[in-house]
Amino acid sequence: MFISYNTNSYTMLSCLLLMNVLLNCFSSPLKLHNISSTHLCHTYESLALLQLTIDDYDESPYPVSPKTKSWRNDTDCCKWEGIKCDNDTHHVIAVNLRSSGIKGSIHSNSSIFLLHRLQYLSLSQNDMSVSAISPKFGEFRFLKHLDLSASSFRPCSFGLNFSSVQFSSIQFSSVQFSSSLHKLTLISVQFSSVQLHSVQFSSALISPKEQGLSGKVPSEIAQLTQLRYLDLSQNANLNMPNFAGIIVNLTELRHVDISFVNVNDRIPKSLVNLSSLTFLGLSECQLQGELPVDILTLTHLKFLDISDNYVYSNVKLFHNWNNSLEYLDLSFVNFSSSLPPFLQGRQPHQLSVLRLEQCNMHGLIPTWVWNTSQQIDLGSNYLTSPSADFLSKITTLTLVQLALDDNNLHGNISLYDDILSKLPNLQGLMLSNSGLSVTLTNGPILTPHRLGLIRCRVFSYRTPISMAMSQVGCYMLGRTR
Known about the structure:
This is Leucine-rich repeat-containing N-terminal plant-type domain-containing protein. About 10% of the residues lie in helices and about 20% in strands.
């Protein structure tokens, strides 16, 4: 395990290092010269690393690479596995012990804190259950990346202060902070990446089965003005009523995902000011109010999911799209209008997913919808078909999912000729209660894994395609005529 020292450990280690240097100087100058010419690593840092004696354990759920087994005191520590030194100063700047099969502890007097020039430290996917996270982690002045995820540290009962550290990335995944934790200081920390999945700020507030954040997101996060990556998603017990106040200051954000976090507030208009945003996930956040009509004009936006909220918008939202948009899910956004027949200005040439389920949309399905490459979901609206052969407008061979169920469509379609023959990759087809009449005509044995024809008028003949329906994984024909 990681060796711990008493309160005089630094003094003792310094004396030992000095004695080691003096003995080498007086006993064998030539030997010292040879070592210095071949070993670039600083002696005190090499000794500090060697103080980390490791106990292996065989119960790791991760692939193990025991890096420390190859460390030897007669070799240059800059060449050790998992260690990286600065090319000019030769100080140790990176220690990567990720998934090294370590079982031990890191206390405040651990020798690892003697590596003052450290910029990168990863202890993830090890068993550190003997100790809690030390406050000394906050004293690495040059640390840019800290990864303690899945390291089984015991719950912290003290304050952690990273106010003097200029992080570019920090990961605390599955790290627990106990109910007695009084303060986690992140003020003035400049993060470009923050991952707090499954962090327990207060284990007393959640059940043992839960692994997510709970409580309220601190307003101080708004002071991280250089923040680029914010992901608090999948934490249903986490509240963020101050989302609008936080987001207004974080203009450098590239990635925001607070899906399933309870915001319970109006959707902030300041979202359109995040000019560098590429990913925005706001699904099931209890958001209310009007969706800013300029949200799709963000130049770099590729992913937008604002589904399952209490948000409304209007057709002007579709007037100006950026060319980068790939994924759009506006399900349950109330439009109370029709889709525009033509898109004005720039159009999303790379759109792969379009989900507009239950958006209270009326009118004809415009042809631009069929340019979507993978998923189209227009289910549970009041849409009508422009012509009986409207499905012939689909030209995207890569389409995987198509949902037109619960609409006011009309016309007769051939399941094979109009759909399956044109969409060889189709895995899901939902036409239930769509108003369409479906004919099972002769064709190859091609059926999607998921097929919904509930309350459709189906004309079936004894053909290879109709006999193959038993192969469909989810075949819904209830109340079908």
